[in-house]
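FORM 12-B: Structure-to-Sequence Request
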């Protein structure tokens, strides 16, 4: 792996043994090659981390790209995200909840869009699975070049604003002292 990967994917892990396998298969199966994976064990009481490592054996090319960090006590998703952000070395950062999954070309598409447009932040539509139903969420079409303030207001006031559908330059976080707070991982 390069000294500075294109993307660092930060994955907080807590009590997701039943769901994490689908998540990590979608991460390790990404078409983009240059990715840093950071898994933060937030003192999970189950076998979540062992499940991740079992799946990783099927993707030996990803082994050197993985970092496993551990909290000695459960601190919550926001603290886990901050631990991952502090350890990350990627040009861009994205978060993935350990019970979520993504299409195999998602990171490549987002990174390509970021580079093509010299963008600090790229975000995309997403799908939510609610047991027996699936719902598509289309984000507002904002003209970030014309009026960044108005575009940001449109995004923030949209019914769903999440951290896991964003790809952002790491220096946006570090240069502006942005970190996760609270149980919901809201950014300030």
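FORM 12-B RESPONSE
SEQUENCE OUT:
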């Amino acid at each position: 792996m390069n000294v500075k990967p294109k993307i660092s994917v930060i994955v907080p892990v807590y009590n997701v043994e039943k769901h994490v396998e689908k998540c990590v298969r979608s991460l390790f199966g990404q078409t983009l090659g240059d990715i840093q994976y950071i898994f933060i064990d937030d003192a999970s009481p189950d076998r979540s981390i062992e499940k991740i490592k079992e799946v990783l054996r099927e993707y030996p090319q990803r082994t050197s790209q993985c970092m496993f960090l551990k909290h000695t006590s459960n601190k919550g998703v926001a603290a886990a995200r901050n631990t991952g952000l502090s350890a990350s070395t990627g040009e861009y950062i994205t978060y993935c909840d350990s019970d979520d999954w993504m299409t195999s070309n998602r990171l490549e598409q987002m990174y390509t869009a970021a580079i093509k447009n010299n963008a600090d932040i790229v975000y995309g539509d997403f799908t939510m699975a609610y047991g027996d139903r699936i719902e598509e969420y289309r984000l507002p079409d904002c003209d970030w070049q014309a009026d960044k303030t108005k575009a940001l207001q449109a995004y923030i006031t949209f019914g769903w604003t999440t951290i896991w559908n964003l790809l952002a330059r790491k220096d946006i976080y570090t240069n502006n002292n942005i970190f996760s707070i609270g149980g919901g991982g809201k950014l300030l």
